[in-house]
Amino acid sequence: MSVKKGIYIINGAERVVMSEYEKDTLASVLRRIGLTSVKVGCGTGQCGTCTVLVNGDPVRACIKKFRDIPEHTRIETLEGIGTASHLHPLQQAWIAYGGVQCGFCTPGFIMSAKGLLDKNLSPTREEVRDWFTKHNNLCRCTGYKPLVDAVMAAAALMRGEISEKNLEFTVAEGGSIYHTRYPRPDALYKVLGTADYGDDLALKMPPGTLHMGVKWADHHHANILSIDTSEAEKAAGVAAVLTYKDIQGTNNLGAPMTSKMSLAKRVKEPVLCDTKVRRIGEPIALVVADTDENARAAAKLVKVEYEVLPFYKNILESFKPGAVSIDGEAPNDLLRQPVFKGANTQAIFEKANDPDSGVYVVEGSFYSSRQPHLMLEPWSLQAYYDEDGMLTVNYKSQTLWAGMVNVPRAIGVSPKAFRIIEIPSGASFGASMDHHAVAMIAAAEMVVKRPITWTQTYEETQRFTGKRATSYTNAKLACDKSGKILALDFDNAIDHGANANSAGNLEKKVVRFIGYPYNIPNIRGLSRGGLSNEPFGVAYRAYGSPQCYTSSEQLIDMMAEKLGIDPLEIRYLNCAKEGDLTNNSYPFKNYGIKTMINKLRPYYNESLEWAKQPAEAGWKRGVGVACGGYHVSTPADRSEIDIELLPDGSVVQYNCWEAMGQGASIGTLVHMHEALKPLGLPVEKIKLYQNDTKFCPPTGPASGSRSHYMAGNATILAANDLMNAMRKPDGTYRTYDEMVAEGIPTKYHGEFSTVGLYKAIDDFTGVGDPTPDNNLLAIIARVEVNEETGKTRVLAIHGIADVGVIGNFLAVEGQAYGSMMHSIGFALTEDYCDEVKKYGSPLGCGFPRCNDVPDDIEFEFQETPRKTGPHGSGGASECFQSCGHAAVLNAINNAVGVRVYEIPATPDKIKAALKAKAEGRSCAPERYDFGEDYNKILDEALERARTEQKHVETAEEIEEEIRSGGH
Ligand code: FES
Ligand code: FES
Asked: How far apart are CA 114 and CA 122, in angstroms?
């Protein structure tokens, strides 16, 4: 190794830098000297998280060889532009405009923006967007719009057109921060670059910390004949090599299948593969060594002998008769969830065979792709024994206390001696609901008993983590001549990939959200799920509902076209109104969708006029509409928090409200401030202690749009108990000292539960009332499609949502804008399969850049107060990603008259569809074949409901019960 000594002007001052001549990049050098605002995301020059300024120009430091930078070069990082007491205008604006969510992209964006403003202090919005696009600054959380807003505001401040006051939020004395644009507490350290993400903590671990390398499976599907670790054990620096034999617990992270219709009790998800591999990139062996290089090198020496088995790249292949069981025991086609509503579905579709029946039917087969989450931070974890001897893992868990159940059992440690600390997260969107990485590093820690740190490459994270499960739908919809929906019939199959991570739950989402939020009087449908040899399906924002809307929101457009009805009006006609029942035969929790559509109508009409205007040569304009929504919480949900009065009169909340960038800190803060309002505490007197299982109670997962609702209700309960304890007979409040002097406890526990209040979806019939609340969304998209190239550009998205009273506008808008970006990606570009060269990077997976997302995104909120929600709020996040992609798909059809049934709607697919249309052919896929006949499965399910449950609830029975006050 040769070392170069050099002097550089770093953040305005000379610094001596010692670099490894052959290998060091600008990023590795800057991070080594402590400038960890420089984040390494993709590591291949695609994402811009590592952007710094070199002589004033943005440079992606991860691909810049340090040896190519001359001495005395001027290098600027985020650490050099502002301090907590003297923020740079860009940092102030990033906070004020909601530019910070997970914050992993923030340093790179701010430095890139500084590079722009240093050259041009009066850029247009288009110039800002072009700059970010040209410099590959990617953000997965914000939808880019708030970032452009922030740059424009910072420029105005720097030009002296506005003052700092314009970017500050002032709380009136005794005023509320609920329902305002109060900035999130974690924004400050993220704009300063001092938030330590996983790989930043790796640099701060004590000397002697070990590193981990992994022997990943080389085949999609194979039996393991032998594993030889002898060479790896002898390699330089190796402390230990682990195989499944070294895992001290069950070595199985697979959750039980609880549905009575499931054909398996549990599907295996081994911590380390034992007898089989089910997908490329499944872990087989772990190597712990003194350096990252040695650990990776030794992992390559682990030899595995395989018997290669057939590779089933989807469930259409793995469900075929005679296919090998991917699990080894459970059948590949293992999950079934029927739904029945009304008694007339079959009769209505039979009647439609008569052309004079007045029943109109559209049908189609639709596919939703394996959308990757594309968080910019690769997985990075540490494991160690803490000062009390607890086996501790730093991880960006999205469900800490589920990890506290699954992982200890799998690796053989007592949950009481186990601890997970959530570290700042470069986003998740559902991916870190999975704890496989935690189990791996913790199992290794149990063997070596010395601290371990493990950072994956972006490509490894892409391979290792779950994705949105793919979905195949055969569906048909029947309406009368007016467009009123009569019946829906569907057969859907979810491809869970190589294991059944949270499967079962997903099948139940399908029977809830296909056709939601319409009143469909008759439904007969089956939601199936099973295994293939592709990456496993895992939670992803709006879990399960986008797959539903790919089919149902296109079918309703197809029906509008068939009947010559406007697409918005057919939706208005069918939207659920008071008294209508969900697919699952219970009342909706909120019926605001008709008024939402009314509010959206003026923009829709304007859009139709816009579409009539000529576009640029070669492009055609189209307008698409879609309705959707999601649920909030579940029928078996619990949320616990603690609050404590401190000696200085401040109040701290302890919770495990996992912070993925979505706003756990601001959510906790606004609820606390509002709930404790009688105490008149200034915001600064409210403190947060979050996401460490040693000190914080189980608040539940950051999923299912539940956190704001559940933790908020728990906060109100605890706050009331604290205030009751503090209240004196004269109505004033005791101080901490007075409480202590009187022996009154200063710490209170709040627990809010939905258990027993709602009804889970029935395994046989799909009947149920599985949520305390629902939210609603309606979206209009304007697109242009180029008939020659097949390319689509989305020019505007306007939406209206009803998520209850908004707790914090910046956080909710952030979810809305970010979701639109994911939806556009889902519709047009994003996909994942195990061709690592293409899909191992953000852009390879179709990550939308700044100019791929419109600047014209607007949301209106219809804030119907929720009766059971804290401060009138419901839950927000997931409805925003439910149906936006369908609006884009419908707009494409409106523009050029072709429908894309199998997303993403890439230029090739659009060109093929246009060609087929020109030749008078259909481009619709054939009906998918899922093997076993769905009518037979549905009949069996009804029979079992009668014999095993002795009772089948029908829509009529439910209605009768509702009328008699039973529900
Ligand atoms: Fe450097 Fe992605 S561009 S980490
Ligand atoms: Fe931009 Fe998360 S805030 S990636």
From this structure: 12
CA 284/CA 945 separation, integer angstroms: 42
Q: Which ligand is nearest to the CA of 150?
A: 2
Tokens of 118: 């240093």
Specify the residue for token string 């160690």: 384
For ligand 1, atom 3, name the residue with the nearest CA.
Answer: 45
pLDDT of residue 956: 65
526 - beta bridge partners?
A: 338, 491
- Are 154 and 112 within 8 A, CB to CB? no
- The whole-number pLDDT of residue 967 equals 44
Q: What ligand 2 atom has the least distance to the C-alpha of 426?
A: 2
CATH 1.10.150.120 fits 1-193, yes or no: yes
On average, the pLDDT of the chain sits at 96
Using the mean position of ligand 1's atoms as its centre, give its distance from the Cα of residue 107 in Å.
12
Give catalytic residues, as residue numbers.
Answer: 878
- Asked if the model's pLDDT at residue 394 lies above 80, the reply is yes
Predicted confidence at residue 837, as pLDDT, reads 78
**Ligand 2 pocket, Cβ-based, cut-off 6 angstroms:** 101-105, 139-142, 376, 427, 661
**pLDDT value, residue 965:** 47
Instruction: Provide mean pLDDT across the span 381-387.
Output: 98
pLDDT tens column, 615-637: 999 999 999 999 999 999 999 99
| Assigned CATH class of 205-309+374-456 | alpha beta
- Residue 367 structure tokens: 């596919």
Cα of 61 from ligand 1 centre, angstroms: 7
- The number of the ligand nearest the C-alpha atom of 199 reads 1
Max intra-chain CA distance, the chain: 88
Q: Are 461 and 363 in contact (CB under 8 A)?
A: no
Look at residue 948 in the predicted model and tell me its pLDDT: 86
Q: What is the pLDDT of residue 255?
A: 81
CATH of segment(s) 638-753 = 3.30.365.10
Residue intervals in the chain for CATH 3.30.365.10: 546-631+768-918, 638-753
Residue 562, pLDDT above cutoff 70: yes
User: Distance, CA 48 to ligand 1 centroid (Å)?
Assistant: 5
List pLDDT tens digits, range 829-839: 999 987 777 89
Q: Which of 62, 374, 456 to mutate to test the pocket of ligand 1 (most atoms within 8 A of CB)?
A: 62
Residues of the chain with CATH 3.90.1170.50: 205-309+374-456
In the chain, which residues fall in CATH 1.10.150.120?
Answer: 1-193
Give the whole-angstrom CA distance, residue 775 versus residue 572. 17
**In CATH, 546-631+768-918 is 3.20.20.140:** no
The DSSP-derived string for 538-601 is ---TTTTHHHHHHHHHHHHHHHHHHHT--HHHHHHHHB--TT-B-TTSSB-S--THHHHHHHHH
Q: Where are the alpha helices (DSSP H) in 690-745?
A: 707-726, 736-741
